[in-house]
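Researcher: Batch entry, complex prediction.
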Amino acid sequence: MIMDIDRSIKDLAVKVKAAAQVLAGAPTSEKNKALLAMAAYLRKQSGFLQEQNRLDLDQALTAGLSPAMIDRLTLSDKVIEGMATGLEEVAAFPDPVGEIVRMWRRPNQLQIGKMRIPLGVVGMIYESRPNVTADAAGLCLKSGNGVILRGGSEAFHSNMAVLKVLHEALKTTAIPASVVQVVPFTERQAINSLLACEDQIDLIIPRGGEGLIRFVVEHSRIPVIKHYKGVCHVYVDSGADEEMARNIVINAKTHRPGVCNAAETVLIHQDIATSFLPQLVAALNAAGVEIRGCAKTCALADAVIPATDADWGAEFLDLILAIKVVDDFDAAVSHIVKYGSDHTETIVTCDYQRAQEFLRRINSSVVMVNASTRFSDGGQMGLGAEIGISTTKLHAYGPMGLEGLTTTKYIVYGDGQIRE
Amino acid sequence: MIMDIDRSIKDLAVKVKAAAQVLAGAPTSEKNKALLAMAAYLRKQSGFLQEQNRLDLDQALTAGLSPAMIDRLTLSDKVIEGMATGLEEVAAFPDPVGEIVRMWRRPNQLQIGKMRIPLGVVGMIYESRPNVTADAAGLCLKSGNGVILRGGSEAFHSNMAVLKVLHEALKTTAIPASVVQVVPFTERQAINSLLACEDQIDLIIPRGGEGLIRFVVEHSRIPVIKHYKGVCHVYVDSGADEEMARNIVINAKTHRPGVCNAAETVLIHQDIATSFLPQLVAALNAAGVEIRGCAKTCALADAVIPATDADWGAEFLDLILAIKVVDDFDAAVSHIVKYGSDHTETIVTCDYQRAQEFLRRINSSVVMVNASTRFSDGGQMGLGAEIGISTTKLHAYGPMGLEGLTTTKYIVYGDGQIRE
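Model: Structure tokens for the complex:
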């Protein structure tokens, strides 16, 4: 059985690679036509999608999945419309492939440039949310990459249905349908098989819980782009605009507490703590946020639970916030270097020097001044859409959009130069 | 013993990481002073370096190493002077750290940019050539990275001596000496220990034979930048300038046959073969090159050995060249896609359309028109110097210089924006 899965996934990967070589040279107009056809077919086949989705939902109900999980799994009319408009938006983005990033001339008249090209084939491993299947297929297609998708077993019927509809759509276009594939197995072994296709797959993107991601990193010889977690910090500097600081903290914590760019820890300069902390805590309490504070925080405000060591660097993903009063700017930087996850940090300050120093000294993937950590997102930052986020420094670092799905080759225009 | 090596290398890695955090924020002027001090000390301590190098050379002679190996191992006056001037050249390069690659404004007035930062700590694993120790140390220091070097056991005393001199030099500067370290063990186990330091080391660069590189890829959870081999192709198009084509082939094959950017296969359009092949083969023979040709090549020229299947895609690293006559441009492209190693390919042509098509359709890391493959080199391409070359598409693809030793973080300037 293991051998069967191995063989069958290798065959799939070989097929995707061959199709991806055709896609890599496809004109932008053909790729855009394909994206629009995919959107149209998703709308047209929404009945079929919901019928297949029903099979997954029934199993999920039987298995007693949480309402939140079931919500994420449901292909409602709104979710399907979102998938379709998502693909139309990707069609409207500029094509990154073929862009000449830079060009220069050498003393011997060689003209050298860097041209953007697709990576080749992307392997994507994710949990729940069948709409990711269409999103990822769209971004990979636009950037000229083949993609093999491996969604959660609880969304198996939905994912296969989305694939069927996308293939129907692609068959009406010049793009080979095989550029998009879904792994047709629910066994965990299928992930191992996928991670062994190092001659066909150029990049693995795992999205999901830390356990899944660690499993992938451990078993892959293919490069992996990942982030384990997002422990985002807001540092409120002395002399900060208190209203701005309060708005940013509330937004960063409560706008969508379950996502990786939500704030988990707020650091407050001691010179502003006495005036700022009590009103911040009151506002957070009013918004339903549980506060876990250092000793000084507990002394300055009511309704604060004393923080334990485990609260610094914790990813709560919930309406819980750790607050610490720090002695000075340096102490804030040290705390972030020690407990941060290289995701996103922001300083709230009116001081030009400190703003610049924060941007220079913090090497997280996104470093902000006077803005909510919630803007750390491909769409919000103008990358178009994001296929993932990286907190490892190789290749992409931070939100990863279409450009992150490409690499550059060197091109050299000569007129007969030989090396002396 | 294995535990001791593991522990001791982990300690070393922790030390390098701490020092690298200081180096990451060091001003360019301090880094340049350190590089110049390193160069001065190498010159001043050449006696000590050669005395320690003698220990390695004596062992090498006893072990019966080949004259070529002994030559690579020798720290002659010329090699030491080369190491010193290499460091001075790196000091003169622009500092990649802190460069703002691009900046844009969002509709909500957020100003977003990408700033170049060091990767962190680089682990470099290589064979022979103790001068690589100084070269790699210089490039990593300039790009703000700590580095742990693991050279060949046959160069152990030489590498430790170079390290001692570099440390003496760094102690006279503001840069912590610990940013450069050499693994003080000759056991193979030390490589495994190094590859396990995933929390300290950001990137592994192996340089050496394919066996070493495959071992590293198999055992590393840290991202690896590598190239297994260079099977570079020269395609001579119909209507090419025959003199230019001959010069490029001779240069690409014979200028330095033992390196990865030397040509290994020449493809010749059948329309030019009758006139071009006999004179090319004569010129190659005169230069001492053994030719392994396809049936048509054998029919058109004397002194050609019939090629076997194994000759296509072979990396000879010697004065041996495979030659094939192809039906047309498409056949040349297909041959390269099938047998190439994603290193470097060049077309010799007078046809504008074919030149552009070759640059577009071949996705090797360096693709050239009318130039020798020998230019596929960081120094020759104007990257300053190269720490390695990558034929995998993630992060760097092709020659990798100072810029390849950095990544970019996003910086965001706001004035109180929160997410709606």
